[in-house]
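agent: user wants the structure for GGDEF domain-containing protein from Candidatus Thermofonsia Clade 1 bacterium. delegating to structure tool.
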Amino acid sequence: MDCTGNTMELRLYLKILLKRWWLIVPLTLISLTLAMFWSYSRPMVYQSTATYVTRLGEGLTNVGDTLYALDTFTGRQRLFVTYCEVMKSRSVVDRAMQIGNIDPAVIDWELYSVNCNVLPESNVIMVIVRGPNASLVGRLAEAIGVAGTARAGQLYSFVGLEELDPPEVQEAPGNRTQQGILGGMVGFVLGVGLAFMLEYLRSPVERLEMASIRHPKLGIYNERYFQQRMIEEINRARSRNRPLSLALMRLTPTEDFSLLPPEAEDMLLRAAALRLQDKIRAGDIIAYLGRYTFAILLPETPAHEAQRLIEWLHQDIRTHTFTVDAYIANFMVNSGIVESSGGSLDLQTMLTKANEALRMARQEGENSLHLIRTSAQPFALDAEIGVPEPLESNPNMPFTSSELDRLLEESASAAPAPRTVESHSEPPAERDGQ
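agent: tool returned. relaying tokens verbatim.
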């Protein structure tokens, strides 16, 4: 049931996105366009990457020099950080421009940069030079390598620094294409955020009603969600030619609930609702329709199995005493069941016939159950009836709350009549599409 609830929430979110597409798409396109315009208005950035490795020098002639070199090399993290600072220092860069015969006036240091990183778990450092001129970036990187290794050799004569991979010039990552994609993603996220904000600010009460799939007081599924699930199960029964049963169960308190506080009445009814939910099978669906009436949808269940299950629920509810705080209650039960083989009935017809069965059960007396079959042979459709078209999940359900209340009120006011245990009803030859 939790997975189904999550699916319903995802459908609700998707519905909001589709409803507000006119906001999401323009913002995405505008953000993408602005990002591309900004990217192309700036010069292309190139980078040159070169790697250097440290090693012990070859001029170690005595034990003291060797121990000193090993001690220095043991603290290699400090050594590598020092070498990185040397490679990107201002003195090394100035010396590199002299070596590369580069005029300092042509370099705008707001557009050029020199960075150095120590590669993890290695004796290798990486020097990265960035700038808008590919040729100048390459020359500067080569000159920095020459000047930097020379300066490092002066600092630590026993631990040298030599070139591992020569500088290689290429476009810097994060250029125009990546910036355009990033801009489009920012616009999409902004559009989605505004869509949800507008939807949530539109009407808090309406939003909560649409998002909720459970009755706020009883904790079981509400009428709107139940009708949506009924459409799904009817379509599944039609596609697989399987039975589907629906029961409407009316609980009648043996005590006068009008004498109880409203909170106590709600708590006692909630206790009964949760007990019914615990007793039904894992694949069955129960919801509250109002007026002490519960709807129980029984997929893959022919009439005789549905009748046995509802009779067992009758016995359990009738013999159980519900206690909440200082209040107790017992309930009498009446139920009406309609069985639809292969999804031969649509949602509206099933609810109407189930309500008719409930009305007849109430006419028969307390704790009665009435069953209406819609096919002479369970599991099979009448030969004259073709396979109906699948129902569409429509937010404007065939039955509104007021219409169900009217049907339930008619059932409650029905006059006594002779007892009828089971009746048979042929499905209509033609049905209006949902």
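agent: one observation worth passing along. Residues 378-388, 391-398, 414-420, 426-434 have pLDDT under 50 and may be disordered.
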